[in-house]
């Protein structure tokens, strides 16, 4: 079975590419702890034009679609309170915002967060949002298929570059909850 690393010429430990990562992501890599060693978090340099999953897959190969995961920010509303949360699903699925997410967060209504809200709250760029380096109090909802993946290709916080991370590491992020059928 191929891994996301097979599609790239240069995959290196993310700790060796801190200068290419946005602040919150670099800080999270620098302070990494968990059962997955930091050396297993890899960085690959990619052209910002290929940041979107569909374009990246077209450029590097269709096999990456099932090995990629997308991170989206949702806004869950209950009463007057809004909770921002990150959802991570495989690239060939979409987040069940109005079902699994809404119920898990106990919200009356859940929707994708406005782009300016998501980017302002994360310190990341559109097309590069990643669950690594998010605010510590955020819920991070990880689809079980992502958590069970040996490696997935995710954003790096900016449009330039991607991270290749074991699914287990994503399931262990602060605030992470693994949910079945988050991606449909």
UniProtKB/TrEMBL annotation:
The GO terms this record gives for MF are: aminoacyl-tRNA deacylase activity
InterPro entries in UniProt: YbaK/aa-tRNA-synt-asso_dom_sf, YbaK/aa-tRNA-synth-assoc-dom
CDD domains documented for this protein: PA2301
The residue ranges of the YbaK/aminoacyl-tRNA synthetase-associated domain are: 63-172
Q: Which Pfam families match?
A: tRNA_edit
- What's the protein name? Prolyl-tRNA editing enzyme YbaK/EbsC (Cys-tRNA(Pro) deacylase)
């Amino acid at each position: 079975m191929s891994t996301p690393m097979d599609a790239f010429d240069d995959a290196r430990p993310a700790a060796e590419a801190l200068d290419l990562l946005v602040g919150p992501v670099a800080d999270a890599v620098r302070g990494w702890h968990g059962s997955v060693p930091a050396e297993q978090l890899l960085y690959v340099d990619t052209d910002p034009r290929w940041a979107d999953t569909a374009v990246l897959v077209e450029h590097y190969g269709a096999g990456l679609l099932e090995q990629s995961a997308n991170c989206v920010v949702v806004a869950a509303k209950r009463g007057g309170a809004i909770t921002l949360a990150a959802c991570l699903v495989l690239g060939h699925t979409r987040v069940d915002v109005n079902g699994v997410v809404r119920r898990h967060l106990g919200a009356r209504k859940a929707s994708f967060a406005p782009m300016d809200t998501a980017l302002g709250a994360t310190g990341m760029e559109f097309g590069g949002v990643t669950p690594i380096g998010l605010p510590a109090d955020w819920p991070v909802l990880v689809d079980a298929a992502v958590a069970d993946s040996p490696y997935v290709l995710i954003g790096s916080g900016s449009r330039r570059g991607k991270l290749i991370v074991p699914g287990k590491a994503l399931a262990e992020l602060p605030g992470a909850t693994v949910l079945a059928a988050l991606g449909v």
